[in-house]
Specification:
There is one protein chain. The protein folds into 3 domains: 168 residues, Rossmann fold; 136 residues, no CATH class; 68 residues, Alpha-Beta Complex (Type Iii Antifreeze Protein Isoform Hplc 12). Helix content is 37%, strand content 17%.
Length: 461
């Protein structure tokens, strides 16, 4: 509750947090919009494959062009307020003066390289590229711990915000029944492509072009890949379990969340207590639900005693009809505008805003249509595959191909629409650090499908 005071103190002492950003696209630009307004932070470098485009983004968010005229990182440090723009990410992460690296490329294979190199040079990492965390986050977290640095999910993105709600609940003594985010969902969206995304998403092509929005990236949200990725990160960080055969997307208004996020035996949709789930903002017939949670996050907790349930009633907390289950929510998230909270937390407190603690969930590439031998997979949000959330034990048993590694790989045997792909279905580049880290993680981590709260209670008994 005192991060801002600590930032002001660092500013007064002339010791700002020295931050480097890798990737200045849409998410990165949103963070850049806030940096000049944040005390105690000096963005010393921006690394981007296309510096000219990154500079245009800076102009779009209101930066003075003079602030990115530093000829080197050392020059930016000497100046005390300017930023070095470069396409050399290695020079950035290896510089001894950088405290925190914000990985914001959205490219999961590259993100693994960036994270590992940053750890090796003593940098904390805020990883916006949650796609990388989804397929090897537990081992990234271990590598950071071994290096004596902090690895964190990015606040403003929904996984870290869900982790915050789960932590609030458990710190207050509430058992977490379910937690997750909202989404606009109908089952056929899983076959959506970059050509169909804007009609389903609710934007015109003109609006998308004006905002510089990437259709493939936005389609990864719409087709269910991103919700699965984010729920994987949440499950691996919080110990919550995942549905046995993918997300259910029950439709519900905010008022109905505590009603649907109950165990099936009590009238809800959950297989058991202690799970992640995603709430749809559309009824099954496509009707828009009033007062939805599409852009928000939520946690449902249980009042275990009559006294607690009476408190819910006395203070007008909205519960399910039994009065046992209560949902706390944030209806909106501000994405990159909120990343500064993670930067301050890792640098000033040494605490992540969400980090994997085990391997409980996975996102497996699943065919959008029948795939023939010789076709090339184009990864999340594309034309060939979408990401399905599965328990880690299921993914290991079937040899599931992680969605984050399903980019530019060749299909070597036919795959039916709706079928989850395996390692044996593709020819993959085994020479990347990302592939090596994933395979190493499979050998080091035993999948854990029991919800953390259940496991803790069993241990106590």
């Amino acid at each position: 509750m005192n991060l801002h005071r600590k930032l002001l103190q660092r500013q007064a002492e002339g010791r700002p947090i020295r931050v480097a950003l890798i990737g200045a696209g849409k998410f990165g630009a949103m963070y850049l919009a806030q940096v000049p307004r944040t005390p105690g932070v000096h963005l010393v470098a921006i690394a981007d494959l296309h510096p000219e485009a990154a500079c245009r983004n800076l102009e779009r968010v209101g930066w003075d062009p003079a602030r990115v005229q530093a000829a080197s990182l050392d020059a930016a440090l000497a100046d005390g307020r300017s930023t070095w723009m470069t396409d050399d990410w290695q020079a950035v992460v290896r510089h001894p003066a950088v405290d925190v690296v914000v990985e914001c490329t959205g490219h999961p294979i590259a993100a693994v390289d960036h994270c590992l190199e940053a750890f090796a040079h003593g940098k904390h990492v805020v990883n916006v590229t949650v796609e990388a965390d989804a397929f090897c986050g537990p081992l990234l977290a271990r590598r950071a711990e071994e290096a004596g640095v902090v690895y964190s999910l990015a606040f403003g993105d929904q996984p870290a915000m869900i982790c915050e709600l789960v932590d609030w609940a458990r710190t207050c003594g509430f058992p977490v029944v379910a937690a997750g985010r909202g989404h606009k969902w109908l089952p056929h969206f899983s076959q959506s492509t970059p050509e169909t995304v804007w009609g389903h998403y609710g934007l015109t092509p003109e609006q998308a072009q004006r905002g510089g929005l990437n259709p493939k990236m936005f389609n990864s949200f719409l087709d269910g890949s991103k919700p699965s990725i984010e729920c994987t990160a949440v499950a691996n960080a919080t110990g919550l379990a995942v549905p046995s055969d993918g997300l259910l997307y029950p439709p519900a208004s905010v008022e109905d969340i505590p009603f649907v996020t109950r165990p099936r035996a009590e009238g809800g949709v959950l297989e058991r207590k202690g799970m992640v789930e995603v709430i749809s903002s559309l009824e099954t017939d496509g009707r828009v639900i009033p007062y939805d949670i599409r852009m928000g996050v939520w946690v449902t907790v249980e009042g275990e005693t009559d006294y607690i349930r009476h408190c819910f009633e006395e203070y007008k907390a909205h519960t399910d009809p039994s009065g046992r289950y209560f949902t706390l929510y944030k209806r909106w998230h501000l994405i990159g505008l909120e990343v500064g909270l993670s930067v301050a937390s890792v640098a000033l407190r040494g605490e992540p805003t969400g980090v994997a603690t085990g391997w409980r969930a996975d996102v497996v590439a699943t065919a959008k249509r029948d795939l023939a031998v010789g076709e090339r997979l184009d990864g999340e949000g594309g034309y060939t595959v979408w990401g399905k959330l599965l328990p880690a034990s299921t993914s290991r048993r079937i040899g599931g191909l992680p969605l984050g590694l399903a980019h530019d790989v060749t299909v070597v045997r036919p795959v039916r629409q709706g079928q989850s792909l395996t390692w044996a279905d593709v020819a993959i580049d085994t020479g990347t650090r990302a592939y090596a880290l994933r395979r190493e993680m499979e050998g080091l981590f035993e999948p854990a499908d029991t919800p953390l709260a259940t496991a803790t209670a069993a241990a106590a008994a």
